[in-house]
Specification:
With 331 residues, chain B is mostly helical. Chain B has 13 helices and four strands. In chain C, the strands form two sheets. In chain C, strands 6-7-8-3-9-10-12-11 form an eight-stranded mixed β-sheet, with helices on both faces. In chain C, helix 5 packs across helix 6. The chains are: A alpha/beta (388), B mainly alpha (331), C alpha/beta (351). The complex binds adenosine-5'-triphosphate (ATP) (2 copies), iron/sulfur cluster (SF4) (2 copies) and magnesium ion (2 copies).
Amino acid sequence: MNESKEPVLRVTDLRTYFPVRSKGLFPKTIGQVKAVDGVSFMVHPGQTLGLVGESGCGKSTTGRSVLRLVEPTSGHIEFDGVDVTNLSHKEMVPIRRKAAMIFQDPYNALNPRHTVGAIISAPFSVQGVTPPGGVRKAVKELMERVGLNPEHYNRYPAEFSGGQRQRIGIARAVALRPRFIVCDEPVSALDVSIQAQVINLLRDLQDEFGIAYLFVAHDLAVVRQISHQVAVMYLGHVMELATREDLYARPLHPYTHALLSAIPIPDPRAQKQREHIMLSGDLPSPAAPPSGCVFHTRCFQAQDICAVEKPEPTEFEPGHQVACHFPIEEFLGTKEIIGPDPGLTPRLGADGSPTGEYEGSNDLIRELGTDYGAGPNTPIDPGPAIWR
Amino acid sequence: MSAYVVRRVISMIILLLLLTLVVFILFSLLPADPARLTCGKGCTPAVLEANRHKLGFDLPVLQQYWEFMKGLFIGRIYAADSPDPVVCNAPCLGYSFKRGEEVLVLIKDRLPATVWLALGAFILWLAAGISVGVYAALRRGRWQDKTVMGISLAGYSLPSFFLGLMAIFFIVIRLQLLPYPSYVSPFEDPIQFFQTMLLPWIVLAILYAAFYMRLTRNQMLEVLGEDYIRTARAKGLPERIVIRKHALRAGLTPIVTAAGLDLAGLLGGAIITESIFSLPGLGSLAVNSVNDADLPVIVGITLVTATFIIVANLIVDLLYAVIDPRVRLVS
Amino acid sequence: MTEISNVQRPFLEVSDLAVQFPTEDGIVHAVDGVSFSIERGQTLAIVGESGSGKSVTAQAVMGLINKRNADVSGQAIFDGEDLVAMSDEGLRKLRGSKMAMIFQDPMSSLHPFYRIGDQLTEAVNAHHKVSKADARERAIEMLHKVGIPLPAKRFDDYPHQFSGGMRQRVMIAMALINSPSLLIADEPTTALDVTVQAQIIELISQLQQEFDTAVILITHDLGIVAEVADEVAVMYGARIVERGSVDDIFYHPQMPYTLGLLASVPRLNEVRSDRLDPIPGNPPSPIRLPAGCVFNPRCAHQDQVADDLCRTVRPALQNVGPAHQVRCHLPATERQAAADLTLSLLGRPGR
Ligand SMILES: Nc1ncnc2c1ncn2[C@@H]1O[C@H](COP(=O)(O)OP(=O)(O)OP(=O)(O)O)[C@@H](O)[C@H]1O
Ligand SMILES: Nc1ncnc2c1ncn2[C@@H]1O[C@H](COP(=O)(O)OP(=O)(O)OP(=O)(O)O)[C@@H](O)[C@H]1O
Ligand code: SF4
Ligand code: SF4
Ligand SMILES: [Mg+2]
Ligand SMILES: [Mg+2]
């Protein structure tokens, strides 16, 4: 699709690692969370790249790194042909006019003490832009455009419902007519009926202004609805990247197969006929990712080589990339496949007795007294400080 | 665990050494001349100079510090070159010429009254603060809660000298329910000991309990809204177990922290309470020493108090790990 | 109570349940006249907009609503006894033994300071006088049943040593440890990843068969409803607006809100047009529920109803099939026309 056009965004081998630090008087780096570990993709003008995967796989970190809201560890980010990876904050200012972000939580993303008008006009003042007809008029037009009542200009976010707050966030993001927006789970917190309103709105704004989206979500059905291309992430790696049609109809990666089969569809008869690939166990921690293919601890297709050699993303067909030694071409709609034992396997010491640690689990972080197998948006919190 | 404790103790010692240095430098910056105080009315510059030398105040600050450190570990002899040298043995915290006594001995004398005062008050305020706090939380928003919070606010804002003086005035002088306070060791005369300590315990406990009620109430309210409390109820546990075993334990951490530090602070002397009830504790020693600009005693008390606080910190952190299994002791 | 009346009565029959919370802003009508019933071994799914009263309904049945802060009225006859009228102590004895509940967020539902095993045996000991060893054995057996590897070893672990999916397994073990006959699962998989969600749903159905449990499953995921439900109740604005078998709801839906819900869900398996068909507007505030039909501010069909009934008269739950009820004023033909339109949009032939 649009291969001829220059991409708005080209990301090459992006890595973002977070140090795991001990707390205290003299904090030490005692490990790394490889939140994003060698990710490459492009986003084309006016198109949407969906980024899906389970919680903690690095979707949000990818989105934030691309906008330099967190500092990438290595790799390249090109925006409209300009390498922005190493630009200073000052040099980023004009870039930020062309790129915006929409957040998941419409409750926390808006300053509760600012009026809606102030929130939506913030990009104008930050960038020092005065739209023709003045800021107030432009903001009211924006409010109208995203389906808010312009008369509510002076109201506060608390007076709006979740869906309306997400519209406020969207109005703020599109205020400067950006070329590109990172949408981080923009509809996950919303009810189904409201979700559909917001998805439609995003779609309409894309058609009207030619905005490209990097659409981060964990809901594959939502991503299918809005995306042109889809990338599936697992533990900081892109496992498969294809056009929407290919990804959903002809998935290649075992993980994509498993994901698609795990999602129940809202059609009882069809759902009861589907067979499941039941993935065993839980997501390993990105602080201690498995060797070789990061998926091998849960993969029903894994062979010996998978634990040793990391599969590189390869173009299986034109426009269809997959990182797997044994991609599955037939559609696994009809087989029941069960992986290895569920749950975490205890790690045994030299004498064969359990060490109290678990394979693939996040011992480093556990050491600090925090949850592993983190839930949605669980930040790494090394627990209560011992040194104070 | 033990490796953690060893490491903590080592860093504690380093911290204390640094602290003594800071204390030394700070006090050397004070305008008062300690040597002047040891020299009476008919002071001549020559005597002053001699005294200064005897006390070691003619040395540069860093060297004074060095001498002090030496005294701490191997003992020290003041005015060794004079006809009447003063010997201060190994853990030598200094020597007060003003009082003609080793600082350590002075502190040892005064410590029991302070420790008894602090411990008694501590037990009282924890018991009162926690139980009343839990009670208020369980009756949130109703009149019992509002009353408790009102009383707590009042207790919180009452100055201790006011409370102490009122207690003495009404209970001792007007109603004569208790004899006038006069401290004795509990091993000598337990009855007089209790009669003396009762009021100071209560006065201190009221001041602190006010804070602990609030803290406990707010902790409990937060914890009672937690999902695992709902789980405990959904299991069919009796409400009293839900409160005591599940909610209170979960809310304990900040209470333990505050309690540890407050107790340590009190062990350094409750200046006002001790003065009002004429208790021979560290607090009144500190006040007198400041009035007399008796520098060695002030330094000694500062160090002892700092040690209490640092040790309390370690104990609180160890308790943390006992209370909350998620806390792993790493350094 | 005679044998016969027990047999004829549904296992759990909730009728006209209402829960109101007096707050500073006004009275919150969280649940407003909800009725449903369920038999052993069956799964009733409750779906609906967030804030529509699903969780409060469940908590009212479990007796987890503090009657000091709320007015609970109506009836919930469970195995012959009315749960709404029951004393706190009576409810406590039922909770965790004959009826149990699991919650949305497994990360915060277990006490962080107590060992998994102790939390499980505590549930046993709350209802049975058994020895420590017996309680332990029962707990380990349950851990094994819910698929925790090396249960005897993990018995002594703390919750933070378990992942989210494993913790939800532990919660299920805890709920089922006294073999309850009613299990209420309030969004048990919402906080979990899809691959783990599939494991948990599978586990619940499997254990349900083993224990012949009645399951009330609260969810907003129509996919899960399609997979496991026998009966479905659709809630909107504190009321049940449509109720029926899973086939009724997915293949013969009638109420405009249900139609809107089905139409607005994006699909995983079918390519549809680029635009979804959302329900316009926002759900009502539970403090100011609209008069008449709660759905009227968002309903496209109200002008097909005569006399402005939608805005003035509260529709009753009327039978439209053997076990299929709808709360809507629309005449049957109009209702069917609306349903057919939605079904054709979904690519499903009507009846
Ligand atoms: N600021 C940070 N410091 C340390 N670790 C972080 C930080 N931000 C994210 N992480 C960790 O990086 C990993 C990826 O996080 P990220 O938020 O990108 O995941 P995600 O795919 O967006 O997940 P979710 O679906 O839960 O939002 C996680 O393990 C997370 O805990
Ligand atoms: N203790 C309470 N005090 C006051 N209002 C309450 C209380 N508990 C619930 N509510 C209100 O009752 C209404 C119904 O809440 P409930 O939790 O049942 O919704 P729900 O259908 O479970 O929604 P969700 O899908 O978001 O979980 C909501 O508007 C909620 O704000
Ligand atoms: S490389 Fe091996 S382990 Fe990884 S997905 Fe492919 S088959 Fe599975
Ligand atoms: S009663 Fe009226 S408003 Fe309510 S759903 Fe039916 S047609 Fe719509
Ligand atoms: Mg995220
Ligand atoms: Mg709920």
